[in-house]
Amino acid sequence: MASEASIVDGGFGRPGRLGWLAISVLLTLITTGGIYLLNHYVHLTYVTESGPRQSLRVLSWNIGKIYLPWESRAADRDLQHVAKVINDANPHVVALQEIRDATQLGRLLVALGPGWRGKVPKDAYDRRAALLVRLGCRFFDIPTSSGRTAQGAVVRLPSGRHVTFVSVHLDAFDPQRRLRQAEELIAGAQRWGNDELFLAGDLNFDPSLAASDSLDRRLYRFLASTLSDAGRDAGSTTIFSRRLDYVFYRSPRVRRARARVLRGRRINTMDHDPLLVEFELVTPER
Fold it and tell me: Second label for 221, Cα 20 to 30 Å away, from 39, 42, 79, 98?
């Protein structure tokens, strides 16, 4: 009898070896069930608050050459290389600067292959900003009083919502003109009535090299007051270690933006590196 009691209750009302085993199994089941319920609850809460995620990749690149008064626009001989860099980066939207004209853009679209659409505006400058998209879109131009015209598009994302993209190339020599162009371009983009805006291109200034009271710092503050600078920490984008290329955005759907400068893609006398930004978007539940 004593030996039987020691197995069941240890002889003094405490669990024996079999009793402790049963308690251990029971606690394991309770813990496992609790963890399952907690994970299930957290998952449901996350989806309800954040919705499904979606990636949007934006590339900005000035494909022109080192500035020479007689010619610095993109070279036809470089178009196959430009197309390969774009396809390797696999963006949804590309903002290009220093395109010569619609004919040159057409050659690039052929080199890119099926699925791409693009447009470049006519303006008073011969180094133009083009926009290429491989999603559904409607293109529009944004002219400025200086004669510079930006290329815009309302783009339909796979989720069904629409966002506005603008490819820009600000004046290279006059900070007052740069500031006025930026103000007019932002106003022009906002007239399309979309609260989600992506502005990409060569802005021709580096705020880190500008004096605090300069027009270029004023320009940067103007843009950063309503837009986020996705490539702020990505580094320089041109020769001589200057950051002239940007992707600014305003969107409540952006959960995270990862930017990187694609080094080693310049050929011949190109002077800019491509800037690639991958946005992690969250689409709210309906």
Answer: 98
